[in-house]
Design brief:
209 residues, alpha/beta, Rossmann fold, five-stranded parallel β-sheet, 8 helices, 54% helix, globular
């Protein structure tokens, strides 16, 4: 039976457990024998991983935003779109909402302009589901303490991350966008995976044709 591709994005602040959750979901997909790919932003291609290294240094706000968008464009072209066309489930650690929350709300850039540029970059690629891993800011930052390889946004002060968190709340409050699901990222990874799977499983069934 042919399958339609499914694009699932994991969002949240620092230390929210997005990559850990994506791994847990990938294990469940393996059990179903459902082909998938796990990617991260910025990263996932040679070009995007190179940009990730650049983003460990401080750029001006628009330079930072555009670097993320260039990395996204390459990831979409080389991995996400081809995978979806082949019927794979794409699990993506961060996507467009991160740009809006971090560079729009966190860096105070023009949000509507960011959205317009991102729309061009995505060329019609849209997540089917966005899972927001919700964790208190202080707890998330404590989890990330001592990390040696984060991009520069991860090492900003708590006030920055407060703006980012409020940005995510604003994005989720859009009544026209029903793709968001909030999960409690303070619970164990086992319980977190169960909660996320509740939202994912119906879409897996719908994607079978």
């Amino acid at each position: 039976m042919a399958k339609k591709g499914l694009f699932i994005v994991f969002e949240g602040g620092e230390g929210a457990g997005k990559s850990t959750l994506a791994k847990a979901i990938s294990i469940r997909l393996e059990g179903l024998d459902r082909p998938f790919v796990v990617v991260r932003e910025p990263g996932g291609t040679t070009v995007a991983e190179g940009i990730r290294e650049l983003l460990k240094k401080r750029l001006n706000p628009w330079g930072e935003a555009l670097a993320f968008l260039v990395a996204r464009a390459d990831l979409i072209t080389r991995v996400i779109r081809p995978s979806l066309n082949r019927g794979l489930v794409v699990l993506c650690d961060r996507f467009s909402p991160s740009t809006f929350a971090y560079q729009g709300y966190g860096r105070n850039l023009d949000l509507e302009l960011l959205k317009q540029i991102d729309f061009v970059v995505r060329e019609g690629v849209e997540p089917d589901l966005i899972i927001f891993c919700d964790v208190p800011i202080a707890e998330g930052l404590a989890r990330k303490a001592g990390e040696s390889e984060p991009v520069i946004t991860g090492s900003e002060k708590e006030e920055f991350h407060q703006r980012v968190y409020l940005g995510y709340q604003a994005l989720m409050s859009n009544e026209l966008d029903q793709k968001w699901v909030r999960v409690d990222a303070t619970q164990s990874i086992e319980d977190l995976a169960i909660e996320a799977w509740t939202a994912i499983e119906p879409l897996l069934k719908e994607s079978s044709i």
